[in-house]
């Protein structure tokens, strides 16, 4: 009888534990963690989503700003600016671009073309990791 009662109590305790944890509640994310790997995430995103689609072979003049908290609507988020010149496989100028990177939870969330004035006061520094990018034909 004691064994049966212990088994019943164990089953009841397990049911209470499982029933007390809603499975549909997402974990809380700290939205403003500093993006530690921001440079590599930007390089990976540009290679996968931008350069591959517009015949970019290599990049020159790459510059970046350190991520800084910026007011976005009613909240603050880390933001940085990226500027570069893209060249096609024959080394012709393909595009000069400035993009804004938005971070959430310590990771790149969006990398979009900068609007007029978005990066006007940006304090750029060299971005050699992006200058090293070569995609598609003509890469060595």
How would you sum up this structure, described in words?
This protein is α+β, with helices and mostly antiparallel strands and 140 residues long. It has a domain of 94 residues. Strands 1, 2, 3, 4, 5 and 6 form a six-stranded antiparallel beta sheet that branches. The longest helix has 18 residues.
Helix/strand-derived category reads alpha+beta
Beta-strand content estimate: 25-35%
Give a short account of the largest sheet: 6 strands, antiparallel
Radius of gyration: 24 Å
Give me the strand/helix succession.
HHEEEEEEH
Number of strands: 6
Shape: globular
Give unreliable regions as ranges: 1-17
- Helix percent reads 25-40%
Give the termini distance in whole angstroms.
77 Å
What distinguishing features does this structure have?
33% strand, 6 strands, 140 residues, disordered N terminus, 6-stranded antiparallel sheet, alpha+beta, globular
Brief summary:
By secondary structure, the protein is α+β, with helices and mostly antiparallel strands.
Indicate the topology.
Layout: H1 2-19, H2 38-50, E1 58-64, E2 68-72, E3 75-87, E4 93-104, E5 107-113, E6 125-126, H3 128-131
Antiparallel strand pairs: 1-3, 1-6, 2-3, 3-4, 4-5
């Amino acid at each position: 009888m004691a064994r049966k009662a212990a088994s019943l109590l164990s089953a009841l305790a397990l049911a209470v534990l499982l029933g007390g944890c809603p499975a549909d509640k997402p974990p809380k994310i700290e939205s403003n963690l500093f993006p530690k790997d921001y440079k590599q995430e930007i390089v990976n995103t540009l290679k996968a989503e931008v350069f591959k689609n517009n015949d970019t072979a290599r990049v020159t003049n790459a510059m970046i700003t350190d991520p800084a908290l910026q007011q976005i609507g009613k909240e603050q988020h880390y933001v940085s600016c990226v500027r570069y010149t893209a060249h096609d496989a024959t080394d012709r100028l393909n595009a000069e671009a400035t993009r804004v990177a938005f971070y959430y939870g310590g990771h790149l969330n969006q990398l979009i073309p900068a609007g007029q004035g978005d990066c006007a006061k940006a304090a750029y520094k060299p971005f050699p990791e992006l200058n090293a990018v070569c995609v598609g034909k003509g890469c060595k």
